């Protein structure tokens, strides 16, 4: 079935599936706890925690290269963290200058040893979770031309920004008037819109789950007992 843009129902369905799968993973929470109060890649322990987190998501960064990569991440963080959209500036509110900063920061991450499109996008997301959308190879192939070029990531950001706008509009149709209330309605009150979209992409594209149609849901409803 062709990819469907997220609706509030689709997001709730995908997020519930993701929660069931993520019970045995919890990688994002592990990273958050190791880098409290905030991720700082100039801290070697934080950089190592990030690299371990990336490997748990299948990025295959060799541990022998951790010290060298950590130093490079520290330099990258010192240069780019001040330029990235500030905390709380969400994906759908990004302006052209914000997109340009994210794309260039992503491009610089690609220059780091052992980093490819997936690890660069996930590292950028870890630093800027309100605005930077992560992806893996399957999502990249679905949304943009495969490859390392930052242009592909720009397409991903623009596409995801549009998806966020569509989700907000559909949530308003369903009576959720404030965008900041969407995560709570979905059952993920601690999530950003970017995290919700990432879960949706991962469930529907990477894992290949299909969002049920209205007809299927109506049929299910007939089977619900008293």
Structural key phrases:
single chain, 226 residues, mainly alpha, 11 helices, 60% helix
What can you see in these coordinates?
This protein has helices spanning 8-22, 27-34, 44-56, 66-80, 96-110, 117-127, 137-143, 150-173, 182-186, 193-206, 214-222. Helices cover 60% and strands 0% of the residues. The chain has one domain (8-222). The chain contains eleven helices and no strands. Helix 3 (44-56) crosses helix 4, helix 5 packs across helix 8 (150-173) and helix 7 packs across helix 10. The protein has 226 residues and is mainly alpha-helical. The longest helix has 24 residues, at 150-173.
Alpha-carbon Rg, integer: 18 Å
Roughly how much helix do the residues carry, as a percent range?
A: 55-70%
Shape: globular
Total beta strand runs: 0
Strand residue percentage:
under 5%
- Which oligomeric state applies? single chain
Structural class comes to mainly alpha
The structural domain count equals 1
Provide the succession of SSEs. Answer: HHHHHHHHHHH
Number of helices: 11
In terms of per-residue confidence, which ranges show pLDDT below 50 for 5 or more consecutive residues? none
Largest sheet: none
Distance between the termini: 33 Å
Mean pLDDT: 92
Describe the structure in brief.
The protein is mainly alpha-helical and 226 residues long. It has helices spanning 8-22, 27-34, 44-56, 66-80, 96-110, 117-127, 137-143, 150-173, 182-186, 193-206, 214-222. The chain has one domain.
């Amino acid at each position: 079935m062709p990819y469907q843009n997220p609706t509030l129902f689709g997001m709730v369905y995908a997020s519930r599936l993701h929660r069931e799968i993520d019970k045995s993973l919890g990688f994002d929470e592990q990273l958050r706890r190791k880098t409290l109060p905030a991720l700082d890649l100039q801290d070697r322990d934080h950089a190592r925690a990030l690299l371990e987190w990336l490997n748990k998501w299948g990025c295959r960064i060799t541990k022998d290269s951790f010290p060298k990569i950590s130093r490079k991440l520290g330099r990258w963080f010192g240069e780019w963290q001040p330029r990235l959209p500030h905390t709380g500036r969400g994906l759908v509110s990004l302006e052209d200058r914000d997109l340009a900063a994210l794309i260039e920061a992503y491009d610089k991450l690609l220059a780091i040893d052992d980093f490819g499109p997936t690890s660069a996008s996930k590292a950028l997301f870890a630093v800027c979770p309100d605005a930077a959308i992560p992806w893996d190879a399957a999502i990249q192939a679905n949304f943009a031309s495969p490859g390392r070029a930052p242009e592909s990531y720009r397409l991903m950001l623009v596409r995801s920004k549009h998806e966020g706008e569509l989700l907000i509009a559909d949530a308003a149709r369903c009576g959720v008037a404030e965008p900041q209330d969407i995560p709570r309605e979905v059952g993920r009150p601690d999530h950003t819109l970017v995290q919700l979209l990432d879960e949706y992409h991962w469930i529907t594209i990477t894992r290949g789950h299909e969002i049920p149609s209205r007809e299927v849901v109506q049929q299910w409803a007939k089977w619900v007992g008293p």
